[in-house]
Amino acid sequence: LSGRVQRANSGELLASQDSLHALAKDTGGNTVFNTNSLEPGLGRALKETSTYYLLAWKPDREAVRSSKFRRLEVKVVGKANLTLQVRRGFFDREPDLAESAKPAKKETEQTQIKSPEAELRKVMLNPYPDRDIPVSLSLSYLNTPTRGPVLSTAMQAPNEFFSFGPVNGRQTAVVAIAGTVFDDRGNAGAVFNNRITIDAPSIEAAREGPDLTYGYPVYLGPGLYQVRVGVRDEKTGRTGTAHAWIEIPNPGQLALSSLLLGGRTKSAINNASAIPLDGSAPVDLSITHNFSATQYLRFAVFVYNAALAPADSKPDVAVQVHLVRDGQPVVTTALKRVSIENISDLDRIPYAAEISLAGLPAGQYLLQVTAVDRVAKRSASQQTRFEIQ
C-alpha cells in the first residue's frame, strides 16, 4: 500500500506542476522542475531574455467587444531554423453584467442548490486543479483512416482515495466522473459524464486492485484544445480535477501522433531499436507516466502524411530520439530509417521503440521524437514528459 500511496503522491506532484508548466508555455517561457541546481535554468533564462523584441498591436473594435480567447502566432519569414517563444494568446475580460440583468436575490438562492454533477463541474472550472483526490490525465491524438483526428482522454485515480462501505457483503465505492473539451476560444464542446461503482471482497482487495481508469474518445478538427476532467466520491463529496492542453495539427502536413508510453520490466531489444506493433511484446500503456529505473520505457508513434518518392512511390522517413533532463540531453540516438514493410497505409506509418532506464537517476524527463521526411526535406516532432521514481 505504501508503494501505491508513494506513486499517488508522485502523480500528485506531477499534476501540481502541470499548471506551472502550462502557464510558462502559454506565456512564452520555460520551466525548471525538481532540481537543486538553479544555475542551468537561470543561465538559460538570462541568455534568452538578454535579447528580445517587443511586438504590439491594437485589436479592432469588434474584438474588444467580444469575450473570446485571442490566439497569438508569430513567425519569422525565411528563418525556419529559429525557435520562437511567445505567449499563446489571451482571454478578453468578461463583460460586467448590467444591473438590470443581474438575477433577483430569490432566484440566486434557488440556484445554489445544485446536483453533485453540477458541483463537480463547478470545481473543474477553477483556475487550478483540485488535488483532494489525485487525478492523472493523459491526452493522445491519432488520425484514423475513416473519421479523421480522434482525441482520446484517459484519466486515472487511486482507489485508496475513495470511501468504501459494505453493500451485500462486498466493499463498494461510487464515483462520479465528468469531463469537458474546450476549444481555443474557451467554447465548451464535447462533454462526458459517468457514474462508476467499484466493488471488491474487502477494503484491502479494493485498494490493492487496479486503480480507477476511464477513457473517452471524441472526433475533432484541427486546433488547440483544453480538456478538464474531474472525479467525485459520492460518499464523502471529495473531488479531484486535472487540466491538460493538446494541439491537433492541420491535415495533409507532415505530423506525428501523440506519444503512447508504457513500461516493460524485461527486454532483449537494444535501446531505441524499432520493434513491431503486433503485440508480440505486450506492454501496458501508462496514464501517469511514472516508471522505475528497472524498466524499459517503450513508446509508439505514427508518422502522418510523409511524401512519396517519385522513383518508387514510397516514403523515406527516419526517426531520432532524445531523452532530456534539466535541459540537458542524456540519451540521443542516431537517425534510424522507419521500416515500411507490410505497411498498407503509407499515410500512417507506425514506429515503436524502447529504451532502458537502467542507470538513469530519479527525476523528471522529457522524451522527444523527431521524424525527418527525407523526400520532402521536412521534419516534425512530438514530446511528452515522464518520471523515473
Task: Describe the fold and architecture.
This protein starts with a helix and ends with a strand. The chain has helices at 2-26, 39-49, 61-65, 105-111, 116-124, 203-208, and strands spanning 69-71, 89-91, 136-144, 148-157, 165-167, 170-183, 188-200, 212-219, 223-233, 239-248, 255-256, 260-264, 284-285, 290-291, 296-304, 317-325, 328-332, 336-337, 348-356, 363-373, 378-388. The protein is an alpha+beta fold and 389 residues long. A hairpin with a 3-residue loop joins strand 3 (136-144) and strand 4. Residues 94-100, 107-111 and 267-282 have low confidence and may be disordered. Strands 14, 16, 17, 18, 20 and 21 form a six-stranded mixed sheet that branches. It is globular.
Question: TL;DR of this structure?
Answer:
With 389 residues, this protein is an alpha+beta fold. Helix content is 16%, strand content 39%. The strands form five sheets. Strands 14, 16, 17, 18, 20 and 21 form a six-stranded mixed sheet that branches. Strands 5, 6, 7, 9 and 10 form a five-stranded antiparallel sheet that branches.
Task: From the structure above, extract its key features.
389 residues; alpha+beta; 16% helix
Note the beta-strand portion: 35-45%
Would you identify the regions where 5 or more consecutive residues have pLDDT less than 50?
Answer: 94-100, 107-111, 267-282
Oligomer: single chain
Distance between the termini: 16 Å
Largest sheet: 6 strands, mixed
Helix content: 10-25%
Topology as H/E string? HHHEEHHEEEEEHEEEEEEEEEEEEEE
Number of strands: 21
Over all CA atoms, what is the radius of gyration?
Answer: 23 Å
**Structural class determined from secondary elements:** alpha+beta
Total of helices: 6
Mean pLDDT: 82
Q: What characteristic shape results from the CA principal axes? A: globular
